[in-house]
Design goal:
Elements lengths: L5 E10 L8 E11 L3 H13 L8 E9 L4 E3 L4 E4 L4 H15 L3 H10 L10 E4 L19 E3 L1 H10 L6 H15 L3 E7 L8 E5 L3 E5 L11 E6 L5 H10 L2 E3 L8
Parallel strand pairs: 4-12, 5-10, 6-11, 7-12
Antiparallel strand pairs: 1-2, 1-3, 8-9, 8-11, 9-10
């Protein structure tokens, strides 16, 4: 990657106007690519915006810009799939995983009660593990993790080795969680999609790895949620800046093969 110029390509799509005008969020996406791959990346994000189960967008924005910072290489988090038979069991498991990651029970309970309020937040909500309060100050915008990617070729190698489904949704989610959990201020992440056709969510953390939970909501439910549990004694401004601006490429190498 040294010597190559990279570009950050970002897409967001909404229905009934832009997000700023109160439009319904449909989808979003991120890619990091060289100049020769720009067209392919843009087309892939356009296809994603036009084929989403949340509906047809009437506003799509795709933009790209040069990445001037060095790109940080991260190994993907270790993945485990937890099969559950009910939403209740899935939520109970998510709570236990968050506790194991280091999030206090009282903070988890507070976040659970406030989850419905976060369903319309476009990015992530940052919750302080000490107070249980939301501390990002971004209101409905939230924190948007950006400048991240994982090459399709390398993902396929990794997924085949670890018996993981070859799905772009999984690739994007693991890439995002890997970047988020790498930051020293982040204790854990909890997420389930706003896609009505996708009911699997996850809990991720440095100790946990990426823990998929196969049922966290009912089919047809368009509510989603992304929470980062953070240690407020760390530099919060640095954390948000790194999540939004630090370019990261996920890469699985031969040294991870064992």
């Amino acid at each position: 990657m040294k010597g190559e110029k990279y570009y950050s390509v970002r897409m967001r799509a909404s229905q009934n106007g832009s997000h700023e005008e109160g439009g319904k969020h449909i989808s979003g996406g991120e890619r990091l690519t060289t100049y020769s791959g720009l067209k392919q990346a843009i087309n892939a994000l356009l296809d994603k915006s036009l084929a989403h189960s949340r509906g047809q967008p009437d506003f799509v924005q795709i933009q790209f810009e040069t990445v001037n910072q060095p790109i940080k290489l991260l190994h993907p988090l270790q993945v485990n799939t937890n099969q559950v038979n009910s939403i209740e069991t899935g939520k109970e498991l998510a709570v236990e995983l968050l506790k194991y990651a280091g999030v206090p029970s009282a903070v988890i309970e507070t976040a659970h009660q406030q989850t419905p309020e976060y369903s319309e937040v476009r990015g992530a909500v940052l919750i302080d593990i000490h107070s249980g309060k939301r501390i990002d100050g971004r209101k409905e915008k939230g924190v948007r993790v950006s400048r991240i990617d994982w090459s399709d070729t390398n993902f396929r190698m990794w997924a085949t080795k670890h018996d993981i489904p070859l799905k772009s949704r999984i690739k994007e989610a693991i890439a995002l969680a890997t970047k988020v959990c790498d930051h020293p201020a982040v204790i854990a992440e909890f997420c389930f999609s706003d896609d009505p056709d996708y009911i699997t969510g996850y809990v991720a953390g440095k100790k946990l790895g990426y823990q998929r939970v196969t049922k966290l909501k009912e089919y047809g439910d368009e509510n989603g949620c992304r929470i980062f549990f953070v240690d407020s004694s760390r530099n919060l401004e640095n954390c948000i800046n790194d999540l939004e601006k630090q370019p990261v490429m996920i890469h699985w190498g031969d040294q991870d093969a064992n």
